[in-house]
Amino acid sequence: MSAGRPIALVTAPMRGEGFDLLRSFADVVYEPWIDQDPLRMYNAEQFAARVADEGATIVVAEADECAGPLFDQPLFAVASCRGDPKNVDVTAATAANVPVLRAPGRNADGVAEIAIALLLASTRGLCTADREVRAGEIYRDGTIPYQRFRAWQVQGKTAGLVGLGAVGRALRWRLEGLGMNVISYDPYSADATHTDLDALLAACDVVSLHAPVTPATKGMIGAAQFAAMRDGAVFINTARAELHDHDALVGALSAGKVAAAGIDHFAGEWLDPDDPLTKLPNVVLAPHIGGATFDTEANHSLLIATDLARLLAGETPVNIVNPEVLGAVR
Predict the structure, then answer these.
(1) Which of these is catalytic: 134, 150, 269, 330?
(2) In 3-state terms, what secondary structure has residue 202?
(3) Catalytic residue (one of 106, 240, 244, 246)
């Protein structure tokens, strides 16, 4: 790096204490991708050109592609405001001796909260009730709402968490606070209660997915797994749609094996309006908004800025993806 304050090109949304910290040690060029009209995400070539235009040595990105020609620039660090820095070619960064930082757990509380919202909305028929009130159909077909919306409480029921990372742990205590018995399956966590997925599924009234998508987890909940669940189970997926078999879910819901579902992600970030899920009244669908909180932005801002400050001070960042480059950087 040249002498003086570094220039940081920030294309991720930042706010709060972390943003103030970053501005205290760097000259910030702030262009959050999400606030652009039209929406803008740089590819690697565009991003490299933008970095060169500003003479930036620090890049903080969330959606823009950090790859290829970007690593021809004299970068001090690249920070991805994600738990999984999938927008960064870490191999290329490491070859260029560029530290890559990440922000694990930034949206854990937000996603846990929307899992609760989906659980309650799907089991209590809240979306249908709202539509009927707005349409003047409170006494639809000569019935009263109490007849149409009777449901079981979640208190006293058993919830099974598939994946016990930051989101799973954040959801666990919230469900316990609702009076639920919470069990878990995660082959990588010593804190999980179950080592067998089918055994967990058979013991649950509610199944909630919180695993990353890997070759081992892709499609991990299919027809056999839905069949293994208790009759009338509730299925929640606030992680990724690739974790469950779409057609198997539709079948389980249509047959009544699964009584209700709440989904916050679809393959390709899109669900066709004619998809069978949209026709089922016992499903609540959300367009990947679990982490869409201002707190998420404040959280990743503080995680990233704190680690950049450590890096600039010659210390080891807490959330560095490729620590093997630190010797070359220093």
Answers:
(1) 269
(2) helix
(3) 240
Is residue 1 predicted with pLDDT exceeding 50?
A: no
For residues 266 and 313, membership in a common domain is answered with: no
Residue 231: is its pLDDT beyond 80? yes
265 is catalytic: no
- 163 shares a domain with 69: no
Where are the strands (E) in 111-257, listed by range? 158-162, 181-185, 206-209, 233-237
pLDDT at residue 2, rounded to an integer: 43
145 and 224 together in one domain: yes
Spatial distance between the Cα atoms of 319 and 324, rounded to a whole number of angstroms: 13
- 128 lies in the same domain as 92: no
Same domain assignment for residues 260 and 118 = yes
Task: State the total domains in the chain.
Answer: 2
In a domain, 226, yes or no: yes
What separation in angstroms does the CA of 263 have from each of 24, 55, 123, 138, 215? 41, 43, 13, 26, 21
Q: Which domain holds residue 24?
A: 7-106+293-329
Q: Which of 23, 124, 148, 288 is catalytic?
A: 288
Q: How far apart are CA 165 and CA 203, in angstroms?
A: 21
pLDDT > 80? residue 290: yes
Q: What is the pLDDT of residue 19?
A: 98
How far apart are alpha carbons 120 and 206 in whole angstroms?
Answer: 11
Q: Would you call 240 a catalytic residue per the annotation?
A: yes
- pLDDT score for 330: 56
Partners of residue 59 on adjacent β-strands: 9, 78
Same domain, 118 and 131: yes
Note whether residue 2 is domain-resident: no
- 233 and 321 housed in the same domain: no
Same domain? 33 vs 176: no
Active-site residue, 172 included: no
User: Residue 201 pLDDT more than 60?
Assistant: yes
